[in-house]
Amino acid sequence: MAAASDRVKFIMLVELRAPFTVSREELDNAERGAADVDLDALAAAAQRIARAENVAVFHGWAEAGITGIAEACSHESISLTEDFDAYARHVAEAVETLLKAGIGGPYGLALGPDGYTGVIQTTEHGGYPLFDLLKKILAGGPIVWSPGVKGAVVVSTRGGDFLFESGQDLSIGYADHDAENVHLYLEESFSFRVATPEAACALLPT
Hints:
Layout (H helix, E strand, L loop, with lengths): L13 E10 H8 L8 H20 L9 H4 L5 E3 L6 H14 L6 E5 L1 H9 L8 H8 L5 E3 L6 E5 L5 E5 L4 E7 L3 E14 L5 E6 L1
Parallel strand pairs: 2-9, 3-4
Antiparallel strand pairs: 1-8, 3-5, 5-9, 6-8, 7-8
Helix pairs in contact: 4-6
């Protein structure tokens, strides 16, 4: 019998696939080096993959056995209103929560599209951009546009707290074709787990 240290650790990978279709005419144009090839379907498939991955990482995927960052978080969530003038206070409260738990920074802020747009467009009293103020509160950490995220999540970026393992990198696969179109898909596989539930704080919309 193998010693415990010799045992192989298996990681369960989940697979995401987003089908899309490109006309054969557009593929011919691409092969000829055209600069205006219509690849909107490919871009839409990439966006679906990215959104599904974000949902799994931040909010979980029960069927795949993935617990997301926001639901694994051991801290009480912070209520997030639609008042962007209050965003700095909410994010500062989240950062303070992590500091009190002994979680070092810098910190990152994941925002859903509406929240990100609101932050970009908002200035504090005196004309100071909210985006720049949040960067200071996060100790210089990133503010990331994250489709699929509900509200916002503040996380430590010190490393080792959230484990994303890539199985198959994002790649294009062939399904079939007909006289006019080629049917393809984007595909990736990964696993994710939260190693340190104390390293994040969720800001959930009220």
